[in-house]
Amino acid sequence: LGTRGTTEDNRISWDLTFFDLEMQKEILASNINNQSTYQNARGTRHTGIEPGGTLVVAHGLLAPGPKNESDMITVRTAYTWSYFTFTDDVKSGGAGGVPTTIVAKDGNRVPGAPEHYLNGEVRYDHPVGFWIAPNFEWVLEGFYVDNANTAKNPSYFLVNLKAGYNYSKNLSFFAEGRNLSDQTYAGAVVVNDSLGRYFNPGQGISGFAGVEWKFN
Fold first, then answer.
1. Amino acid 50: pLDDT
2. Which residues in the chain belong to E strands, given as ranges?
């Protein structure tokens, strides 16, 4: 279920989605001695909410004039709540004399995705073409990286900054600084790694720049 819309004056826009899925035989990935392997879960449930929105906070602060000729401050934010659980035990073995083991218990969390993820941006646009946009990414709680729910990727908060100049409708320049507070965090994970090497470290303070050309 969802809704998406914009107010008549285009000052506010929103996007809201709710989902609740009960799945059978979801494919679970594992990494055993650097080799990918897969098995099916008997039952899982995925519930979540994804709200997001944009708000034009102000016009004409430093460059007053008609809306299409004045500066503008815009706030954007998006939040994702993901509650993914096993609804039955996941077992392996039991054939050819191999003892049965429980890989994941009923009620365990399906690993790999944070329950709470929030990002936001405040952007300033000037009519001459310059813009700047500080933003953040926030994983509010640690999340499990294995089916047994014994290891977690810790929460993290990143501060980034983007800026650019739109020279024309076709040509623009941009630059971006990421992780400006130099946080130590795992930006990606390998779920169910048999050697316990779950975490891929994210970059420290880093910068990027580029040119964008749009074809009509």
1. 98
2. 2-6, 12-23, 27-32, 35-40, 44-59, 72-86, 90-92, 101-104, 116-125, 130-139, 143-144, 152-153, 156-166, 171-178, 186-189, 199-201, 206-213
